[in-house]
Amino acid sequence: MATKRHAPQTTDIKPKRPKFTLPEAHIPTTHKDGSLFVTGAGDFGQLGLGSDILEKTRFALVPIKEEIVDVCAGGMHTVCLTKEGKVLTFGCNDEGALGRNTSDKDDSEFVPDSVELPGKVIQISAGDSHTAALLENGKVYAWGTFRDSHGNMGLTPKGNEKFPYLILADHTVVKIASGADHLVFLTNFGDIFTCGCAEQGQLGRTTERGSSRHARSGGGKDQLAKLLLPNLISTSPRLKLKFDDIWAGTYATFAKVATKNDIYVFGLNNYNQLGLKSLTPQYKPTLSQQFSKHTWMSISCAQHHTLGLDNDGKIYVIGRKEYGRLGLGKDCEDATELTEISSMSTKKIISISCGSATSFAVTNEGILYGWGMGTVGQLGTGEDEDCYDPTIIKSKQLADKKVFRVSSGGQHTVVLALTTNNNNKIIDN
């Protein structure tokens, strides 16, 4: 009887593909600490100068004892990160954006004070009525609320959160970004989660019909929960996309593919601010050929225009021209493609920011430039006139300072600056 033949054993088993991991992301460096200066509207305390000062047309020093390493200007509030990893807030607290009790003392919204958090904070972000903080252990706490065209949405399905609330608890986050009314999370596995208002497509995970809290699919609290509870953005499974950087605009989101220059965008594009030819809102992540042409250090997007800072320190702009926000001169047209600001071409830029209709850039020499709408002093020029070209921003209190960070909000602007030393030190990036 013939013996049975057995198939030869093979050890050539294809190993499992290792899971993509992202140990860290590009967040603002915090190895420098400086003095905080503010300008613009302060009627809700967002200047931090006390209840007697409701507007400044030039930058003024905020008397804070703590060493500040980062700052974010929200819609009507300001958030600071200290060297020790603590968060200070001041400004409008009607919906909890300050994350602390301001009812126990008169005018406490007008004075910087700390937020209680369970660990060291390494990054902060701020929207119109919300604030978020990323802790060094990868956990994110948020407070305040989101809003849409129907009014207050709440921060969670339970409503507003007046104090820090642990969000996306089961994931390790390496970077956060805030739009006006949405929040974006980048995890250590290169995934992107979003929550908040979706009406302009900024969450990147709804259809146009499903972007409203009153959408028929689900409806009521169930539909609202779908928007307020963080969930993954919608990308094609066959592309197997992983990301290593994120930025949020007022009504938009930008996401960089890991190890590539490819930039996916979603949200409002009515003035080409996403770098797409179609002017319709983008509800799903779409590759932007315009933004994928460059390697970006930072992208800052406001309502209708976007600034981009590449790794060579060059600054580009795209979008709406009104009020001079593009910095391309009074007679320029809307920029439908990314355009380098020629008057800044010889400068090396280290920090950029867009306000509602303003733009700012900081050079490696510590010089602050601003342009756009100046109606309430948010440019810091001392006037209420609009600027159509990048203009050096000067004030007595900034005279001996080197600016290294800028953030522009609804109608106010904040900067961090170092005192000039005897060696006339140039700021490193």
UniProtKB/TrEMBL annotation:
RCC repeats: 34-84, 85-137, 138-189, 190-259, 261-312, 313-365, 366-419
Region span, Disordered: 1-20
Record-level Gene Ontology MF annotations: guanyl-nucleotide exchange factor activity
Domain RCC1-like residue range list: 36-415
Keywords, alphabetical: Guanine-nucleotide releasing factor, Repeat
A cellular component annotation (GO) from this entry: cytoplasm
Entry-linked PANTHER family: REGULATOR OF CHROMOSOME CONDENSATION (PTHR45982)
Designated name of the protein: Regulator of chromosome condensation (RCC1) repeat
Organism (species): Popillia japonica (Japanese beetle)
